[in-house]
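Run log, item B.
One chain of 337 residues. Sequence copied directly from the ordering sheet:
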Amino acid sequence: MKKVVTLGEIMLRLSAPNYQKIVQAQSFDAVYGGGEANVAVSLAKFGLKSSFVTKVPQNALGTSAEQQLNRFGVSTEHVLHGGDRLGIYFFEKGFSIRPSKVYYDRKNSAFALSKVEEYDFDVIFADADWFHISGITPALSEELFQLSKKALKTAKAKGLTTSCDLNYRSALWSFEEARVKMTELIPYVDVCIGIEPLALLGDDGHDIKDRLPKNPSPEDYVPVMEQLRDRFGIRYVAMTKREHVSVNCNRLQAYLYDGSQLYQSTEAVVDIIDRVGTGDAFSAGMIYSLINDFKPQDAVEFATGCFALKHTIEGDANLIPISDVEKYMSRSFSINR
């Protein structure tokens, strides 16, 4: 059985119930989540060995976060313990024309203050086949940028396949800082998910993405993906595309480029229960597909199925089993009895 290791922060998510704004809420629904933790949960649900690496405080919240991961089959054997607090984020779910909002309270969390030397990647990667990280983790601090770089370099040196969901967050760092820092990391990545902020400056000083037409076709993305792949030695570039019908209804599609051909998924139109974690579901679907040697078209279809179905699941993590993704791909929606 193949094993995937992910590294990042798990946080307590507090959501205002029933589409309320936070200023209205008298209570909050609590779950745990975070980009790489969500990927780990999805992969465990798919039957892979899945290990999540982080640092949590030695208190009830840290214990509860670990127990939530273990509940879904994720190994926490390499989770560190210490520090004073678990990061928190508050979620306000949008409706119709009112967008959703996220408010972070993660400064000085146990993971954010952890040090590179605390993590023994020789042990962490001992029996692993794949390593995954997102652009959120290196954005948290210079120390965690160095941790991300060490993890990727070590994984590559040990022969693991590596993936990174660029996952740019303007609340954590500027676009220019993200471009500089992620440009240092991406040479150690085999599978790049997303193109921003690595859409490189062209000879005319403009971003490649700024030269795309207003409503780009799939083929318009090929030069961007090709340049990223050629410059950094990336094996696959994948990305999702989202069109907003409303806050609660989106039109989805995804692309996968392997250096010779662009593969595009069947379009999906989804009514949304919870959009958080949908990109993580796509990453997990792509990792599962590629680690199991799916053909590129099948890989992008499977990952898009994960991406689409997560919109129907409350909470951060995608809890859809492989069988449900396959039923969706075959467009079989009969009621299971």
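Observations after the first pass:
- The two ends are 31 Å apart (CA to CA).
- Residues 142-157 form the longest helix (16 residues).
Flagged for discussion on Thursday.
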